[in-house]
Structure formats: C-alpha cells, structure tokens
Amino acid sequence: MLNVVADKEGVGAAVLIRSCAPVSGLATIQQRRGQQTDKPLLLTGPGKVGQALGLSTDWSNHPLYTPGGLEVLDGPEPENILVGPRVGIEYASPEHVAAPWRFAVAGTPWISAPKNTLIPR
After folding, report:
1. What is the chain's mean pLDDT, rounded?
2. What does the alpha-carbon distance between residue 61 and residue 58 come to, in Å, rounded to a whole number?
3. Following DSSP, what letter does each residue of 62-76 receive, concatenated?
C-alpha cells in the first residue's frame, strides 16, 4: 500500500492511494502485478498500487520530496474533481464514515469501486 503521511509526527493525517493511472512503465507494472492487461483493474486497490510500484516495508519513512526513488511531483491541477465518502471505514464514527474525504479525477476509468458515491466538487 501507499499511505502518505500528511502532517507532523504524532498527528493522525494521511492519504491512502487507492488507485492510480499508469503514465509510464506499463510493462514493469504488468510484470510486478503478474497481469498483461492495460485495464483499470490493474491498478484499482491500495494493495495493487503498492505491488505495481514495487513498494515494501523498506519504503517506510521514505521522504517523498527528495530526489531518488519514489517522489511527489507538482503537476497540473485536474479541472474536475469528484468527492465522496471513503471506502472500507465502517468501523469509524458516523461523521467520519460520511465525510467527503475521497477524491478522484472526473472522467478517468482508473477509480477503485464504488464509483457511484462520488459527486463533483
């Protein structure tokens, strides 16, 4: 899984990457996933994303704003964002279950299920 801590140590703030779209390296992604498809099924789900990126616990505490390996880079801001409730947190408090803390780019097929809970921001 790719879970990015988004605040200082001791503060519960993180972003779980549930799906992504391949920009390059499709053959490597397919090899790591053991699938030859180029369909969204290849990268929809946090475990699939981690496997496709070749992540292991060795990557824990890796800084994402320094060159080398896995990095977060600036890119164009998507024009249309979808928001909705997170997936798989039924154990949480009702206000957290319903909170619009899930984000996706509108129009992309690379969104993990369920898609019907997402609305334009």
Report:
1. 90
2. 8
3. --TTSSSSS-----P
As a whole number of angstroms, the distance between CA 75 and CA 34 comes to 29
Q: Are residues 81 and 70 in the same domain?
A: no
Residues 100, 70, single domain; the answer is no
Paired residues of 82 in beta bridges = 104, 120
Model confidence pLDDT, tens digit, residues 72-98: 888 888 889 999 999 889 999 999 999
- Which are the contacts of 64, defined by CB distance < 8 A and separation ≥ 6? 4, 70, 71, 72
Q: Does one domain contain both 66 and 81?
A: no
